[in-house]
Amino acid sequence: NEVGRHLPIKEIGEIVAPTNAWFHTDSVQTYGALDIDVQDLKVDLLSVSAHKLNGPKMLGFLYRRDGINFPSLIKGGDQELKHRAGTENVPAIAGFAEAVGLLPAEVKEEHRQKYLSFKHQFVDGLKENGIDFEINGHLEENQLPQIISIWFKGFASDSLLTNLDLSGISAAAGSACTAGSLEPSHVLAAMYGEDSPRVAESLRFSFGINNTSEDID
Fold this sequence. Notes:
The protein is built from eight helices and six strands; from the N terminus they run H-E-H-E-E-H-H-H-E-E-H-H-E-H. By secondary structure, the protein is α+β, with helices and mostly antiparallel strands. The protein has two domains: 93 residues, Type I PLP-dependent aspartate aminotransferase-like (Major domain) (Aspartate Aminotransferase, domain 2); 112 residues, Aspartate Aminotransferase, domain 1 (Alpha-Beta Complex). The strands form two sheets. A three-stranded mixed beta sheet has the order 1-2-3, with no helix packed on it.
């Protein structure tokens, strides 16, 4: 979610499977960007959010493998296979289904190529302007196409965010889940060490279907 790293879920699933432990993966960023086969990945539970596909906010789904049962999150009615009571948000569900329907394989590949192009254009622009930076992770290898995390050497993330915001540019110092938090990125701390300057000098950028090459410039 933060640096766009595509983790080896299948390999982890193969390790977990013999233990009979339940294996859950958060696929909020990958669903719609990469092909997902839950059988091949050997996951028991997989969660997805609609807004990452440009669908309605505050809606998602949880894949649950047959045989996996757990207590109800909200007790009362028998909705959601008795796992979450309450009337379903039908309009949002319909919107989610429509968003998924607008992403056949050829469109996903078109988006992937578009985002990769944006990434390269962005990085090339930083180089051309003499910006001292490094990518957290990699540009393409095992990376999601729509996310890039960059270490801007010597510049505090909060100062950069303020200036970007004044210029109408949206970015983040961490994942969307930690937006507004003043705590250092635990992801970058785990990757590079708590004392690494990357932790407090990095920004996360993401690209969407409405972005254009002019936006990147």
